[in-house]
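Board notes, transcribed. Complex of a protein with phosphoenolpyruvate.
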Amino acid sequence: MPTKKIIIANLKMNLSLSQTASLARKFKNKFTAFNKGEVVICPATLALCRMAEILKGSRLKLGAQNVFWEENGPYTGETSVSSLAEIGCQYVILGHSERRMHLLENYEMIHKKVAAVVKSEKLTPIVCLGENWKERKTDRRDFVLVEQLWQALSGIDIFGDQQIIIAYEPIWAIGTGTAIKPDEAEYAHKIIKLALNDMFGMQVVSKNFRIIYGGSINPKNVKGFTDLENMDGLLVGGASLKAEEFYKVVKEITK
Ligand code: PEP
C-alpha cells in the first residue's frame, strides 16, 4: 500500500468556471514545493479541462466527481471513463451521498460505475459510503457500512496494482462544520478494513485499498485525525474552497 497520505478536494458545484480557474492557480502556487502526500483536486465536470491545463507541471492530480459506466452510446449528459482519462483525470468520486440523495443513485448504479472504472484500469475510484444520523442513533452503522461495501464491490476483480479508495463519510457530518470524533472514525475504518479483508483477503487490501475520512474536516479539527491507525487520508469539501485552508489541512495531516 502507498505510504503517503492522500488528500482529495471535492469542490462539488460550489464555484463558477472562473472561480475554479482562480482557485486552481492558487493551489498550484501553494503546493509548488509540497511532496509529502498525494493531493487530488476534483472540480465540476465542466471545469476539468481548464483545471488540467492549469495544474500541468505541478504535482497536483486531477479527479472527477462522477462518471458513467458505459464507454459510449446514447447516454445523454453522461461522461465516459476514457474521456476523463484522456483529459488527464486519474481519480473519480463514486457514490457520494449527495448523488445518492439528489440524483437517486442506487446500489446497482454505483456498482456498475465501480466495476467499469476498475475494469478500465484507467482511473482510481474513490468509493464513498457512510451512515445517516438515524442509522447511527439506532446502532446500525456497522451493518450499513458493510452492506454498502458489499453492494459497491462484490464480484469485482482487482488486477495488479489497481488502487481503490474507500471514503468513509458519515452523512450526518458532511457540510455541518463539525467532524465526528477521531476515535469514531478510527472505529468505522476498522470495520471497513475487516469487511474488505473478508471480501478480498488481507494481501489485496493492504496493497490495493486505502481508507480515508470525509466530513467537515477543517484546519482546526484536522489535528485529531493525524495519527489514527487506519487513516490513509481525507476527503475535504468546504475547506477545499479556500487554498490557504486546504493547504493547512494537507500540511497537518501529512506531518
Ligand atoms: C464531502 O461532501 O465529500 C465533504 C467531505 O464535505 P465537507 O468537508 O464540506 O463536509
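The chain has a mean pLDDT of 96. The longest helix spans residues 182-200.
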